[in-house]
Amino acid sequence: MNKTQSKSLIYGKLFLISVFILLLNDFYLKHQFHNYLTGKLSDFVGLFAFPYFVSLFFKSKVKPIYILTGILFVFWKSSSSQFVFDFLNGFGIGINRIVDYSDLIALLILPFSYHYRIKNSIGIKKLKFLPKPILIGICSFAFIATSLPQAYGELNLKSNYETEIDLDFEKLKSTNLYYVSVKNDKYLSKIEIPDKKAEIETTLIIKQQVNGTLIIKLDSIVSYRIKGSGFIFGGGVDEKDIEYVENLSVEDFEKIFIDQKINNLKNK
To answer: Which of 87, 107, 149, 242 is the most exposed place for a label (fewest CB within 10 A)?
Structure first.
C-alpha cells in the first residue's frame, strides 16, 4: 500500500456510511423509535468504524487495534466496568451504559471491518467538499459525543391493572401500545414522564377474546431510563429526577399507563 492510498483510506465508502449511520441512529432513530434494532445498530456500526478510524493513525498496529477494540468492548458492556462509571459519575461526568450481554453479538462485525481495512484501497477517492481535517473532526465527534448521558435503574414492580378494549388485534398493531413482541402474548411497551426526561419500560399481556375484544394487562413495570442534559462530558442526570421516579408507586405508573396508552385506544 503506497502513501497516497494510505492517506485516502479515511474516505472509504463503507467507513463513511457507518459513521453517518452512527450519527443518525444516536441523534434521531433511537429517540424516535427506540426498539431492538436501533439499540443494536450503534454497536454494529460503531465497532465497524472505530477500529478502522484509529488504525489510520497507527498504520503498523492494525491487528492489535482490532483485538484491543474487541476486548474493551466486552469490558465496557460487562458489569466488571461499573467501577469506571461510578468513578466518573463521582466527578460529575454524566456517562453510563446498560449491561446487556446480547450486545456482544456486534463483535461479529469486527472481522469484516478488519478485512475491509487491510484490503487493497485502490479506488478510494477524496471528496473535495469534505477536507480531511473536517472529516477527522466529524468522526471524532461521532465516537465521543453521540449519546446524551443517561441513568438506568431496575424497578421490577408487579401490576394487577387489566382492561378490556373493543379493538381487533390488527388495528392494535398500528397503535403505539407496544413496540416489540417478546413471546406468546407478552409485549414490551414504554411510557414517559416528559418533565423528568424519563422512559419507563413495561411488559404487557395482550389476549384476543372469542368475542373479538382484547384483554390488556399491565404485567410489570420493569425499569427506567432517564436522560441527562448536555453531552457525554457535561450535564449529567439530575439526581432529583432519579429519586422522583424511584419513589413512584405501582398506582402512579398505572395512572400514567392509562393516560398515555389506554385512553388513546378507547378513543379510536
So the answer is: 87
What is the total residue count of the chain? 268
Residues 59-96: pLDDT tens digits?
889 999 999 999 999 988 887 877 776 776 665 555 55
Sign of CA dihedral 26, 32, 34, 36: negative
Based on its alpha-carbon atoms, the radius of gyration of the chain, rounded to whole angstroms, reads 22
- Which one-letter amino acid corresponds to residue 129? F
DSSP 147: S
From residue 22, how far is each of 6, 50, 148, 170, 248 by CA, in Å?
A: 24, 11, 14, 33, 35
Q: By three-state DSSP, how is residue 129 classified? A: coil
Asked if residue 149 lies in contact with residue 236, where contact means CB atoms within 8 angstroms, the answer is: yes
Half-sphere exposure of 215 (CA within 13 A, CB side): 13
Quick one: cell of 82?
461499573
Q: Quick one: 104 exposed, middle or buried, by C-beta within 10 A (0-12, 13-18, 19+)?
A: middle
pLDDT in tens, 106-155: 999 999 999 999 885 555 666 666 788 888 999 988 887 655 566 778 89
3-class secondary-structure state, position 235: coil
